[in-house]
Amino acid sequence: MKEIKLHHKFNYTDVDRAFWAKHLEDWVPQRVYDSHIHIIDQSYQLETVSEEMKKSYWVQELQNMLSADVAGHCYQTVFPGRDVCCTGFGWPFLGWEIEGSNEYVWTHLPAKKWNALAVVRPTWVAEQVEWLLSHPGVIGVKPYYSLIGHDASSRDKYIEASIFDFLPHHQLEVLNDHKAWVTMHVPKADRLGHPENQRDIKEIRNKYPDIRLVIAHFGRSYTKPHAEEGILPLADDPGLYWDNSAVLNPEVHALAMEHIGPDRIMYGTDNPMFMMRGRRKWQGRSYTNHTSQDFYFNTNRESPEIEAGYTLYMYEALKAMKDACEKIGIGRDGVEKMFFRNADRLVADIEAHRDADK
Ligand SMILES: [Zn+2]
């Protein structure tokens, strides 16, 4: 059949159709909630990504963002016959027009019955956060350490910041009052397991218990050692939520399902990144991305026969999730919770609180 253009350099091919039919058609539930997707029209990018930046971190080469309509087209293509909705937010870098991109999500996402997070800068006063949360469909915020200050050459100038450096207490107070959703991409090269992150997450949970705190990417736990260090000490907190976006590693999915359980894990894609074609390999605490596509980071090519069989990263992630469910013994009820019901319940709680406030 014909290739369908998804977005940027990414297409949907017969390899993907066959992968879906073989592994996913009978397993992915009818309703899918993507808890972590970046949606923003490319016109909000203020400066093109420098070649230096592209070479510094692989994700920078994929900074070609999805508009709401293109995101809808991609969902229809990659989840055939499914009802898909999402929590979407812009791209949290100062090379983008942040205020405008927040306006974009609350203008375009509610029309599709999708929810939005506002990207929030640490310098913004409490009233600004209050104002962001007053817009249609805005259920919370997406803070990020690169919003502390701009650096056109690297994403990670502020990676060693503490969480409170980019999500200050005066904002947390407002978010707590609104019972808002906060998607937290943890800082630090040591990821979620860093003692300061562990301490700060616990402090947020104690001081601001009504915030719906969602730890993105299982705390950036892409390898098993990082998952053991980061997830295990926090797994028992019954009020902490986790999105599994960008996690391809079946061992990490299995560890999370075993220790967190299916009631607080939410499916997410991290698209557009995960429409890349290829696979990932892990060694100890590091990983290698393999892809057939033309990127700076793509220095570990595999044989043409292997590359010809590559499917989308997001399909590999779904398959990893499926394998982990089988290994841990998570049945249909748990699968449906992770794909839809957990996120849907969280959103319903936030909306009920918002209506009660009116
Ligand atoms: Zn993301």
What does this structure look like?
The chain is built from 14 helices and 12 strands. With 358 residues, it is α/β, with parallel strands linked by helices. The protein has a single domain, classed as TIM Barrel. Strands 3-4-5-6-7-8-9-10 form an 8-stranded parallel β-sheet, sandwiched between helices. Strands 1-2 form a two-stranded antiparallel sheet. Helix 1 runs parallel beside helix 13 and helix 5 (126-133) packs parallel to helix 7. The radius of gyration is 19 Å and the shape is globular. The model has no long low-confidence stretch (mean pLDDT 94). Zinc ion is lined by residues 36, 38, 270.
List the helices and strands and how they pair.
Layout: E1 4-7, E2 10-12, H1 14-24, E3 31-38, H2 51-56, H3 68-78, E4 83-89, H4 98-108, E5 115-119, H5 126-133, E6 138-142, H6 163-166, H7 169-177, E7 181-184, H8 195-207, E8 212-215, H9 217-220, H10 224-230, E9 241-243, H11 250-259, E10 265-266, E11 278-283, E12 286-291, H12 304-308, H13 313-328, H14 332-357
Parallel strand pairs: 3-4, 4-5, 5-6, 6-7, 7-8, 8-9, 9-10
Antiparallel strand pairs: 1-2, 11-12
Helix pairs in contact: 1-13, 5-7, 11-13
Zinc ion binds next to strand 3.
Short key terms for the protein model shown above:
two-stranded antiparallel sheet, TIM Barrel, globular, alpha/beta, 16% strand, 14 helices, binds zinc ion, single chain
- Number of helices, where a helix is a run of at least 4 consecutive DSSP H or I residues: 14
Mean pLDDT: 94
Shape: globular
Strand sequence of the main sheet, in spatial order? 3-4-5-6-7-8-9-10
Number of domains: 1
Q: Which percent bin holds the helix content?
A: 25-40%
Sequence stretches where pLDDT stays below 50 over 5 or more residues: none
Largest sheet: 8 strands, parallel
Total number of β-strand segments? 12
How much strand?
A: 15-25%
| Spatial extent as radius of gyration | 19 Å
Distance between the termini: 52 Å
Could you say what the CATH architecture is?
Alpha-Beta Barrel
CATH superfamily: Metal-dependent hydrolases
